[in-house]
Sequence to fold (248 residues):
Amino acid sequence: MRFPKPIATLTLTIALTPALAAPALADTRLEMKSHTDAFEMMGQSQPAQDKTITFWIAGDRVLRQDSENAFLYRGDQNKLYVIDHGAKSYSAVALPVDLLALMPAEMRGQMQGLLQQMAMTATVTPTEERKEIGGWNARRYDVHMQNQMGMKIDSTVWATEDVGTDLKAFRGLYAAMGSLQPGGAGAVDELMKVQGVPVLSETRIEGMGGSFGSREELLSATETDAPAGTYEVPAGYQETAFNPMGQR
Fold:
């Protein structure tokens, strides 16, 4: 049985989910720098990764993408599109996500108990510590996540409310992404206590035979018109069924 590589990496990404801020008139573009240490976990290994992640936000539509993959949230369609640029393919997932229903029918009985053991619980502790990071006034939040299988995720998140844009769909995107990860859905409500846009987060993941760290930093936040087609699946991409066990 093979679990998706980003089981920890993407789960901790939920901890970076900002709360609703004031609405903006133009599209919002966020650019983040991400680093993940090399790790071995659950029989899988991954080299160190450095990437730039770009977000486009407009109303009930959000695109999150890097050079390899993208997640396109379409609140108006109640769908999340998982896009693989390398394979030029995509999967359309109905919202809200029901991970068990996405499993092959013959595996659902076996997976139900396992998913319960993998379910993450989260605690977000706001602090009164504040400082300026990258020109943004930020507040510190301490985030702890764990599950019955011994995985622990501890993050220090510095978030700002200086970026004024309607982040309702942004929150919807990360709720959906978290629900695609085994164990992620149960932690989403608590993680929404992080107020504003994270400008710096440092995370340590331990358990399941490995440990590694990661860091994300907000580089820019601008209001500008998105290129045509930003909130659509790229032309020519082939639709495939979403495979929860085959995520990269």
